[in-house]
Amino acid sequence: MGMAERPGLPAEEAPPVAPRPVARDALDPLPEDDRWQLVVAQGAPSRRRVEESWLCVADGRVGTRGSLEEDGPGTVAMVLVGGAYGPDQALVPLPSWVPVDLDGTFEPGRRVLDLRDGTLWRDVPAGGGTAGLRSTRFACLARPGLGVLVLEAAGLPRDESRGPTGRPTTEVVVHPARHPAGHPAGPPTGVLEVRRSEVRSPAGAPGSLRRMAAHRVGDVGQPARRQAEEDLGRAWQLGPRRLLGQQRRKWDGRWATADVEISGDGDLTRAVRFALFQLICAADDRGEAAVGPRGLTGEAYAGHVMWDADVFVLPFLAASHPPSARAMLEYRIRRLPAARRAARASGRNGARFPWESAADGNDVTPSTGIDETGREVPILSGPLEEHITADVAWAAWRLGAWGGDWGFLDGPGRALVVDTARYWASRIRLDARGRGHIDAVIGPDEYHEDVDDNAFTNNLAAWNLRRAAELVRRRPGRGEQEEACHWLEIAERLVTGFDDRTSLYEQFAGFHRLEPVTAASLGQVPFAGDLVLGRSRTGRSQLLKQADVLMLHHMVPEAVAPGSLVPNLDHYLPRTCHGSTLSPSVHAAVLARAGRIEEARRMLELAARIDLDDLTATTASGLHLANSGGIWQALVHGFAGLGVDGPDDSELTIDPRVPPDWGELRVRLRWHRTNLALRCTPSSVHVGTDRPLPVRVWGTRTVVEPPGRWLP
Ligand code: IFM
User: How far apart are CA 693 and CA 120, in angstroms?
Assistant: First the structure.
């Protein structure tokens, strides 16, 4: 690319931070860099589970939460394997391969998660009655499913001493069988874990432990077991040092098309990289990737796949590592039969995706929950939060259009757009005047249930119908042209909620008549509005949990009324309490696009703190991955101002709005098979590219030749 330095250093160039004695497996960390490292010093037992979420290491397939190696108060050592749902369709938390039975007492010490290479380091100096310990662990991005732990401590060996010292012990564990997707009578499936450990205790030196664990999900029969043992054997022979070298090369490659840096703000840069790191860790790039709302860092929402994945996580992966976005869509494609059955069961055509989805693709949203008073209340999102069906189509379009990959949209991804359009065409009710309505839904703002003509749902459904018609225009299937005309007509008839006198979209029919409450009159955002006002009054008020009309402006700016962003921002933002972690980042994005840079920046900083300050007191059960994805979207679509336009979304538009004291906003990504490196300042942008790139920068069209140039 002929552009800026690559993040991270190859292992051989990395000087050790401090001279390290002994152990054959001792590994060298990369040089200290607080823009790339999350440091937890002397963590507290009361915060241990939060730290375990922060310090999780994952490779897209297996997540090992950041528990300490030894048992202790507050520790819950746990592993999560993507897509490993139990018979109850909940992600199964597995016992971790990390715990070591050590003699002695240890402080938590200093723990460093290095975002450059996905390694977790721990250093506990001996003293004050506690023993010393050092450890390094990582989940191998180059060999997904393989975890490596190297530990040195005075208290070794204990449990490992069952095998003769110097000879590795190998264990094979089959974790509970999962419900095979759609094949109740299929082969036995589950999670297979093969673990090998070796302890060395040279006289007069601390003992050292080398451990590796290989996890495989799916078939757990004999051949799979043999294969897992062979894979582990090869990794064992390579040893931790060479595996770490592979790890660093792999992570360097991922950051080369993913990094975002704010040159004038180191703390924000670290928080942003932490978010991007989580997104990289969450999704496999082979087969199918079932990405839950907390990725592989926690089991909240039973790891069910929700719109968090399609709308918030996928865009980052589509722009940094398309194979992972493709694997996420493969998860949806394989569940089209279930979505078609769901549509048929409700008397409709096409495919209806479930609000919460697990192994078999049926709706697994719980039907009840506990409210703020401890009462059991119905959860209506399963039957009513139907926008998920259009969200899945949007995700498919996003991968195809962003990557310039029409082969996907004309091929395996086509049904995700076309069958969902068929659903909407049969779902829309025409009234006596021929106007289309979608009755009885929940929009993204979940404080208002069972509403008619939710602007987000209606307009996204219309967008879905029009995009499907475009696909048919490109490659008509038999009888589809007539159907596509009908889709276009029905999209035209569907009420949008837009009032051209005020330029406002009414969030749903009757919203403007509700009690006009502003968030500021109730407290300082963010807060859970339903806890403050009570569930039923909230439902009768205009208080919003998260972006709804503004979510529409965020997702499909090309499909909303021109000039409507600012009036709707003025109207809806003051009514929003950000009771959902999905809210601040989206507001940051639309505020930046509206040129309200200072407010945008405050929202972004709020989003960046959600997990790092545990603002919702729920980080213990996993990091909020939609927020991570939203942070990237706020930076890329909001501050860097990237968008697409033109026939077949073939033109990249760049319209940066950068706070003056940020210095440069640097963004690396892929678009239409081109590697880009942008350096945005308040008044100019350097576009680095490895191919000739037609762009529109601040409204002016030009073609940038490699390696790039400053504009204007
Ligand atoms: O999907 C979200 C929803 O939009 C708001 N409540 C939390 C869910 C899971 O993150």
Answer: 39
Tokens of 628: 């991570």
pLDDT at 489: 98
Query: DSSP string of 548-559?
Result: SHHHHHHH-GGG
**706-709: long-range contacts at Cβ-Cβ below 8 A with a sequence spacing of 24 or more?**
706/1, 706/2, 707/1, 707/2, 707/3, 708/1, 708/2, 708/3, 708/677
Strand order in the sheet with 57-58: 57-58, 62-64, 78-81, 94-95
Domain parsing of the chain, residue ranges: 11-255
Cα 617 to middle of ligand 1, angstroms: 15
Tell me the average pLDDT of the chain.
92
pLDDT at 153 over 70: yes
The ligand 1 atom at the shortest distance from the C-alpha of residue 381 is: 3
**Cα–Cα dist 518/373, whole Å:** 24
The pLDDT-based confidence of 102 (bands split at 50, 70, 90) is confident
User: What one-character-per-residue DSSP string does 102-137 give?
Assistant: -SS-----EEEEETTTTEEEEEE--BTTB--EEEEE
Q: Which two tokens mark 110?
A: 């200093």
The topology under which CATH files domain 11-255 is Beta-galactosidase; Chain A, domain 5 (2.70.98)
C-alpha–C-alpha distance, residues 425 and 434, integer Å: 14
Q: Which helix (H) or strand (E) holds 302?
A: none
Sign of CA dihedral 551, 554, 556, 557: positive
Per DSSP, 127 falls in state B
Rounded to the nearest angstrom, the distance between the alpha carbon of 583 and the centre of ligand 1 is 10
Tokens representing residue 342 in the block:
């769901």
Q: Which amino acid is at 578?
A: H
Q: Give the residue-averaged pLDDT of 586-592.
A: 98
Residue 328 buriedness (CB in 10 A; 0-12 / 13-18 / 19+): buried
State both tokens at 171.
């264990």
Name residue 549's amino acid. Answer: V
**What pLDDT, on a 0 to 100 scale, did the predictor assign at position 224?**
87
Kindly give the distance from the C-alpha atom of residue 310 to the centroid of ligand 1, in angstroms, as a whole number.
12
Pocket test for ligand 1, best of 580, 610, 624 (most atoms within 8 A of CB): 580
Q: What is the pLDDT of residues 162-172, one digit of tens each?
A: 444 557 899 99
Ligand 1 centroid to Cα of residue 320, in Å, is 24
623 CB less than 6 Å from ligand 1?
no
Query: Which residues belong to the active site?
Result: 446
303 lines ligand 1 (CB under 6 A): no
**Three-state SS at 123:** strand
Question: If you take atom 4 of ligand 1, which residue's CA is the nearest one?
Answer: 444
626 in contact with ligand 1, CB cutoff 6 A: yes
Tens digits of per-residue pLDDT, 318-333? 999 999 999 999 999 9
Q: Are 150 and 209 in contact (CB under 8 A)?
A: yes
Place of tokens 């402006």: 553
Is 576 close to ligand 1, i.e. is its CB under 6 Å away? no
Is residue 156 predicted with pLDDT exceeding 90? no
Cβ 582 under 6 angstroms from ligand 1: yes
| 161 — pLDDT class (breaks 50, 70, 90) | very low
Residue percentage of the chain with pLDDT more than 70: 93
Q: Poorest-confidence range of 4-18, 143-157, 253-267, 328-342? A: 4-18
Q: Are 290 and 298 in contact (CB under 8 A)?
A: no
